[in-house]
Design a protein that fits this description.
single chain; alpha+beta; Jelly Rolls; 8-stranded antiparallel β-sheet; two-stranded antiparallel ribbon; about 30% strand; acireductone dioxygenase (Ni2+-requiring) activity
Length: about 190
Amino acid sequence: MAIEAWYMDESNEDPRLPHHQNPINYVSTETLIEIGVLYWKLNAKNYENDPELEKIREERGYNYFDILDLCPEKVENYEQKLKNFYTEHIHADEEIRYCLEGSGYFDVRDKADRWVRILVKEGDMIILPAGIYHRFTLDTSNYVKLMRLFKGEPVWTPYNRPQEDHPARMEYIQNLTEKVGVPVAAH
């Protein structure tokens, strides 16, 4: 089963709504790969002993992880944190998220600077490349449990848009325009 992704409408309604265009304009996995987004479907019920997750972590050098339970009851300053996550930004490193429970939306910009909404739910693991403009919000369930993976020490520094001169953004744009390198196979 492929991940669900679509182009967003221009509405300013509650960001936790799906924001489908009318008619719905789905985005293919191939299009996500073209902009550097990778995806795996894993067994979230067995994440502690999943050989496929271990293989991905080893191949990509993810030697640190933590778990984030994101919901109003478990996060101090919940509304402010969610607002911060939903502010368009980039990171200097990949953003790796594995959904263990619940669901939410990662929004990324495509090559034409349009928003693509990616629904992540239990078992979905996505990698956003360094330098891609993105944001995150919960859906109307108001709950997600995510594993956050890192290479080396965890870094959560967001750089809010505009960041066209940031080295990670410049490298991302160069990779998009030159199609340099091929990402590790995902499914």
